[in-house]
Design goal:
Helices cover 34% and strands 23% of the residues. It is built from five helices and seven strands; from the N terminus they run αβαββαββαβαβ. InterPro entries: Ribosomal_uL5, Ribosomal_uL5_dom_sf. GO terms for molecular function: structural constituent of ribosome.
C-alpha cells in the first residue's frame, strides 16, 4: 500500500506538474476509486458463488450482489434475478488492489488492452489465475467469469489520465474515445 502512495506523492505528481499547468494542488489528478465487477447475463446463485468467494481474495473486501431491475429480452435476463457481483474500492483497499495489479499482474499479461473514456479506464481480465490467491484454489475457481475493472480518476480530461498511466508504465493506449 505504501509503495504506490509514495510513488504517487513523489514521482507521479512531479511528472504531472511538469507537463500541465495547475493553479491549485487539488487540481492534480488522482485515482478516485476502483470498481470491480463479475458479470454474467444469465446466472444462477450456484454460478455466482465462486465469484462471491473470489472477490475477498482479490481485493480484501466483500462484494454486493447486483440484481437486474427489469426484464430485458435482448440480454435474456429476468427482472429481480442476481446477475453478478460488484465491489467499489476506496481508501486502503484501492491502493492494495492497484499496487498488486501494477507490480504483480500487469507484467504477466501479454496482450493488455484498455479503453480510456473521459476520466475512466476500462479493461477486462480473462485469466484470473494470474492472482496467486486464486491459483492456489484452482479446483474451486475454474468457472470464474471475466473480471471487469474500472479505474475512476479525478482529472480534467483524458490526456491527464493517459499521462498518469504512462507514469505507471502502462502499455500505450490501444483505443480512445476520440479515435
Amino acid at each position: 500500500m505504501y509503495t504506490f502512495k509514495y510513488y504517487y506523492q513523489h514521482i507521479i505528481k512531479q511528472d504531472l506538474l511538469t507537463k500541465f499547468d495547475y493553479n491549485n494542488a487539488l487540481q492534480i489528478p488522482f485515482l478516485n476509486k476502483i470498481v470491480i465487477n463479475f458479470g454474467a447475463s444469465q446466472s444462477t446463485f450456484k454460478n455466482l458463488l465462486p465469484s462471491l468467494a473470489s472477490a475477498p481474495l482479490l481485493c480484501s473486501q466483500f462484494p454486493y450482489i447486483t440484481i437486474s431491475k427489469k426484464t430485458t429480452l435482448l440480454l435474456k435476463t429476468k427482472g429481480g434475478v442476481a446477475i453478478g457481483c460488484k465491489i467499489d474500492l476506496r481508501g486502503i483497499n484501492k491502493f492494495f488492489f492497484f499496487e498488486k495489479f501494477i507490480f504483480c499482474i500487469l507484467p504477466r499479461i501479454k496482450n493488455f488492452c484498455y479503453v480510456v473514456v473521459d476520466n475512466n479506464v476500462f479493461f477486462k481480465l480473462d485469466n484470473l489465475f494470474l492472482f496467486k490467491e486464486i491459483a492456489k484454489e484452482y479446483d474451486y475457481f475454474q468457472d470464474l467469469p471475466k473480471l471487469s475493472v474500472n479505474l475512476n480518476f479525478k482529472a480534467k480530461n483524458s490526456k491527464e489520465v493517459s499521462v498518469f498511466l504512462s507514469a505507471l508504465k502502462f502499455p500505450p493506449i490501444i483505443k480512445s474515445q476520440y479515435d
